[in-house]
Amino acid sequence: MIKQKNHVVDLLFSLALFCVFAASALTIVIMGADVYQKSVNDMNRNSTIRTSLSYLSEKIHQNDAENGIRIDQLNDLPSLVLTQNLNGETYETWIYAYDGMLCEIMTDLENGFTPEEGQPILEIGSFSLEQNGSRIILTVSDTQGNTSSLSVSPRSSISS
Asked: Tell me, what DSSP letter sits at residue 159?
């Protein structure tokens, strides 16, 4: 009779120990998943902002020529306008934020366009430009409102 009672206590102890182990393992997995999700969200946020600022910076450097860069407005949208001559024709590339997207459109000087016609590049929250002397200050925010700025100094002069 004593042996049977001993076996029940051993079984209950083993079962309780297993339950504590299982609960601990589940808690660690849940905490790890939460940390992983936050890391992924931070990487995506940083990637969006950095990608858009790098894209804009590279476009400015590619068009760094006399009167090749200016800041303008397109239907009250701040726009970066890059002017280039191709085969004797003058073209403008307009980069602006419209409907939650960073957009770009390339057009010749004779044809007008609307913001809806631009090619969406990247989803962003907002985009602003500021000219400070010879520098262009680009500010981009993502859809969660996180903002970052970049100052670019073209070697050529900036058109007003």
From this structure: B
Say if residue 24's pLDDT is above 90: yes
Structure tokens at 57: 């910076």
Triad 49, 50, 56: Cα angle to 5°: 95
The secondary element (H helix, E strand) that includes residue 79 is strand 77-86
Q: Are 92 and 104 in contact (CB under 8 A)?
A: no
pLDDT at 145 over 90: no
pTM of this prediction?
0.72
Using CA atoms in the order 99, 103, 108, 111, what is the torsion angle rounded to 10 degrees?
A: -10
Structural element, H or E, at residue 91: strand 89-98
Average pLDDT over residues 121-130: 90
Burial 87-109 (b: 16+ CB within 10 A, else e): eeeeebbbbbbbeebbbbbeeee
